[in-house]
Amino acid sequence: MTKNEFPRKITIREVGPREGFQSLSQVVPTDDKLELIRALVSAGVKEIEVTSFVRPDKVPQLSDAEELARRLPAHAGVKYTALYLNQRGFERAEASGVFQNDAWLYTSPSETFLRHNNNAGIEDLLSQVPVWASIFSARQKSALRLMISNSFGCAYEGEIAPKVVVYIVERYLSALASVGLSLHEVCLADTVGMAHPKSIEHCVSAVRSLGVPVSLHLHDTRGLGITNSYVALELGITTFETSIGGIGGCPFTPGAAGNVATEDMVYLCDTLGIETGLAWREMAQVARLAEKIIGRPLPGRVYKTI
Amino acid sequence: MTKNEFPRKITIREVGPREGFQSLSQVVPTDDKLELIRALVSAGVKEIEVTSFVRPDKVPQLSDAEELARRLPAHAGVKYTALYLNQRGFERAEASGVFQNDAWLYTSPSETFLRHNNNAGIEDLLSQVPVWASIFSARQKSALRLMISNSFGCAYEGEIAPKVVVYIVERYLSALASVGLSLHEVCLADTVGMAHPKSIEHCVSAVRSLGVPVSLHLHDTRGLGITNSYVALELGITTFETSIGGIGGCPFTPGAAGNVATEDMVYLCDTLGIETGLAWREMAQVARLAEKIIGRPLPGRVYKTI
After folding, report:
1. Radius of gyration of chain B (CA)
2. What is the CATH number of the domain that holds B235?
3. Which residue has the higher pLDDT, A286 or A155?
4. What are the residues whose beta carbons fall under 8 Å from the beta carbon of B129, sequence distance 6 or more?
């Protein structure tokens, strides 16, 4: 194949405050979370996933979602986002009054993962699409996005074939079309770090062929996080979800350490001449702060060199 | 540019027993080193750099070089190698009676590094080429190889331009030609982990244009070790020096952690359909053993998932 030119510029969505703090056994104090978020904002990060509106008894690490939302630093040009798994979570996120949430739908090609994580199967989720459509419509949400966990592999089901992901996207496109909606983005998440250069190439190409913009959320579990990001940049992907210091991981996968570290991704882009709007040394300082807050060395690499 | 086909097969030289154990503050018992070497051999590793014949008072971690050499497990098809910095070290390696050493010359484009590491400058080293030539000739060494430390960057001198590396190689080729010798290999070592995809591409291409086969010795200090290896595979490089568990690092560079981990490299190759003669899960078990011997988690990624 012929390499594309690398994109001139990419967007990095920081997910550390949500995914990182969620994955810890300890509960991080709200003040510490806010200190990290302020540092990210000061360093120039423009989009931050700050929490998830899930059940406080199930995920005590994020039970301060409302308080955190209330105390987020206002900053022009910074977009805060949050996750939710169901309508109750979505309404809580909306009621928090801070989030300029895009509308997200969450799914997975792994039925087993969905049963564990969402307590529902793929057909259940698809049957809810019209319900979500009317909720989003009532809230004037226009940009509809689809997050696909375990797009490349699953701890329960092993490697996932791109055609299964394509099937899921097609089903969603069809369900959405029947209520007059389309997708603005599909985010392919490598939740357990099983993606590799060839599967990135195949899956990204296959989903793109459906005419939907693709973004990536990659983990470094097997040491290929940055390499997969490099391959995705070669393919012209321009939106990546990363986590400061590489904090994060799937709570259901033993030893599944680490999202791609934001500062390592910024460093890679810097060497390739790709703009991120961020400086890696400054981001490395923020990773140092994350390490201090969490109290142990984090998976990220480049921050340890400053 | 157009991507090359990936090579069908590569050779992995394991350097963990030398570089890994040398970089530790603790001295690893000879029995433990031998246990790791036996495990590497059992897993199918065919070339292992086991020690360095340096001054025991300067590098107590490798003061057991002679004993280790004497006790190495004999195994058909396995090649043990060792480093040396000077003629005394070379003669000790030869006298150990075990090594089927190729002849290596060691240099660097960083004058400052050479002064620290070799207590000599580049011109001093070049002036010794005829001396080495007669030593190698007396020992019937035919395959002459050149190791270039800090080929991509140096803790003292920053990023190193490919043209400086090319200049060094040209000087060696010329010095060797004057005594009737040529180079069978140039190993570009990213001693402090400053290489990145573009510098790999530029430096490898530039040195190759001199007609010498290139191998790589890469570190993961800034998180690009595996990505740089991927780029090198795209360029058709077929010989890599890696370290089990990612142990190793430059003692002169604070925080400069880790060679590319052998098992992570094997895993990458496996996903690309490139033969290494090794199985990543088996190599991951050996990394587990290395972790047990060293007594703390190692930088390698994939071994933590088994």
Report:
1. 18
2. 3.20.20.70
3. A286
4. B105, B172, B175, B176, B179
DSSP B101-125: PPEEEEE-S-HHHHHHHTSS-HHHH
> For residue A265, what is the nearest residue in chain B, using CA coordinates?
B223
pLDDT(B250) > 60: no
In a domain, B2, yes or no: no
CB contact under 8 A, B223 and A300: yes
What number of CA atoms fall less than 13 Å from residue B100's CA on the CB side?
10
> Looking at CA atoms only, how far is residue A221 from chain B in angstroms?
6
Please state, in angstroms and rounded to a whole number, the distance separating the CA atoms of residues B225 and B116: 25
Question: Searching chain A, which residue's CA lies closest to the CA of residue B262?
Answer: A223
- Cβ A291 vs Cβ A244: under 8 Å: no
Q: Is A302 close to B1, i.e. CB distance below 8 A? A: no
- Residue in A closest to B4 by C-alpha: A1
Residues in A touching B267 (Cβ below 8 Å): 222-224
Q: What are phi and psi of A54, to 5 degrees?
A: -120, 180
Q: What is the pLDDT of residue B130?
A: 94
Q: How far apart are CA B242 and CA A248, in angstroms?
A: 28
Calculate helix-pair angle for B225-234, B262-272, nearest 10 degrees.
40
Does residue A296 sit at the B interface (CB-CB below 8 Å)? Answer: no
Q: Where are the beta strands (DSSP E) in chain A?
A: 11-14, 47-53, 79-84, 103-107, 144-148, 153-154, 158-159, 185-189, 214-217, 239-242
Helix H or strand E encompassing B281: helix B280-294
Q: Is residue B146 part of a domain?
A: yes
Total number of domains constituting chain A = 1
Q: How confident is the model at residue A249 (pLDDT cuts 50, 70, 90)?
A: confident
Q: ipTM for the complex?
A: 0.94
Residue from A246, A176, A237 nearest A207 by CA: A237
**Residue of A203, A243, A264, A305 to mutate when probing chain B, most B C-beta within 10 A:** A305
Domain with B263, as residue range(s), is: 11-305
Q: Which residues of B touch A302 (CB under 8 A)?
A: 221-223
Identify whether B5 is part of a domain.
Answer: no
Whether A261 and B221 lie within 8 Å, measured CB to CB? no
Number of Cβ within a 10 Å radius of residue A183: 19
B256 CB within 8 Å of a chain A CB: yes
Q: Report yes or no on B72 lying in a domain.
A: yes
